[in-house]
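ABC transporter structure dump, as promised
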Amino acid sequence: MTALVRYSLSMLVRSQGYIAPFVLFGSAVVVLTTNDFGPIAGTYSACALIQFVCMLWFTVAIVNTEDRTQRSLTVVAAGGQRRVLVANVLAATVVCVGLSAVGLVYPIYAGTHDVAPADLAVGALAQLTCGFAGTAAGLLCSRLVIPKAGYAVFASLAAIGVMTMVRPVPPVGPVMALLSSATAPDRMLGPVAAMGALSVVMLVASVLVAELIVRQQD
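structure tokens r here:
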């Protein structure tokens, strides 16, 4: 599995599909958090939002690096469609963890905040939660599930709109609403962790749905 994950990441680098979402993430984090002050949980809310959008984009880029023929060869060599899908998800998780580290640390040095351990825990959980949700959505918007690029773009925009603008839709909306509220960080940990668990369930479900759709297409 390690070799498959490294292969997925290397294909992403070779395709240069990482450049646009990486630039978007870096630009948004810098613009939204530099010289910011006040409760850092609110700042982490902005980082979590951009994490969701960028991880959707990164996941689509990872899955779409191979055309149908190349992916068929990879599936045969790897021993099954599920193993390749899991490797794609793990590669996206590596990217998600890296972006979360940047989104967690940069606002502290670029703004003026009183930071407690609970703030860091909530910020990390929130960004990972939104990142996993973005990965789940990206997998379902990839070429495996939606072969036509135009439809995939509309599906991606719809997913971003619904999950970020409709606040009751979990897990992104509730996490953003909670971090933007006046709730104490230590009281946020439980609800944010629950949303994190939900995002993992969504990610597992998206892998199973994508695998089922690919099998039906074959």
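The chain is about 80% helix and 0% strand.
lmk if u need the other ones
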